[in-house]
Write a structure and sequence with these properties.
It is built from 7 helices and 11 strands. The protein is of the alpha/beta class. The protein has a 7-stranded parallel sheet, with helices on both faces. The longest helix has 16 residues. It is globular.
Length: 220
């Protein structure tokens, strides 16, 4: 059973954040959701969880741990640094942050560089940290839905390159474990799904599931 100290959660309306909130509630952990749009968060999460404006100076007050996920882009390192400073000032002891498995890619790609900046910023703040580096999200296949419906075709760069797609629910489960139990501070976890598949193989599985032959076209 969790020790009862508050956990603050960012990005709680996303495909990782929503299941994470449910898992932490099931563990009876006191929660506070930091939301840019508290009204929308309330609609998705319900009235049982404390929801505050993420911009509030007191948003992290009283939290002992926090989950951090932010939009990937050139400003990710700065956003992580600002959050880590605020967490440190509020007395937060442990930040679990979503990074990216693309950090491992050589030569480095932009998204990997952004997440490396995130990790460096949080580690430099002095707050305790755990970094989760998921690979390809299984839910990324949803981006193919429109062209599958309209044309029975998926356009994909490098359609034969393998990855191990992971369900965002499983990423949330790892985040919950890292937040609820001691011993994860200072550790980095690379997260992948159970099977390596190319985009072409994923599309074949989808076609079999919906009973529709699908075509894959390699895009630049």
């Amino acid at each position: 059973r969790y020790d009862g100290r508050m956990i603050a959660v960012t990005s709680a309306t996303g495909n990782i954040g929503l299941p994470l909130v449910r898992m932490l509630r099931e563990a009876r952990a006191p929660l506070r959701v930091l939301a840019r749009d508290p009204a929308r968060a309330r609609e998705l999460i319900g009235p049982e969880v404390e929801i505050v404006d993420a911009a509030s100076p007191a948003a992290l007050a009283g939290a002992r741990a926090a989950f951090f996920l932010a939009h990937a882009g050139p400003g990710l390192g700065d956003a992580a640094a600002a959050f880590a400073r605020a967490a440190k000032a509020a007395g937060v002891a442990h930040v679990v942050a979503i990074s990216s498995g693309t950090i491992h890619l050589q030569p480095q790609v932009a998204i990997g560089g952004w997440h490396l900046a995130l990790e460096q910023a949080i580690a430099a703040s002095g707050v305790g940290w755990t970094f989760l580096r998921p690979g390809n999200f299984a839910s990324n296949a949803l981006r193919w839905a429109g062209s599958i419906r309209a044309r029975g075709t998926v356009f994909a760069a490098h359609p034969d390159a393998p990855s191990a797609p992971i369900d965002p629910f499983d990423i949330a489960a790892v985040a919950a474990a890292a937040l609820l139990a001691p011993g994860h501070e200072g550790k980095t976890y690379t997260l992948d799904g159970p099977a390596r598949m190319s985009a072409r193989e994923q599309v074949a599985v989808i076609g079999a599931a919906i009973g529709k032959p699908l075509t894959v076209v390699e895009a630049s």
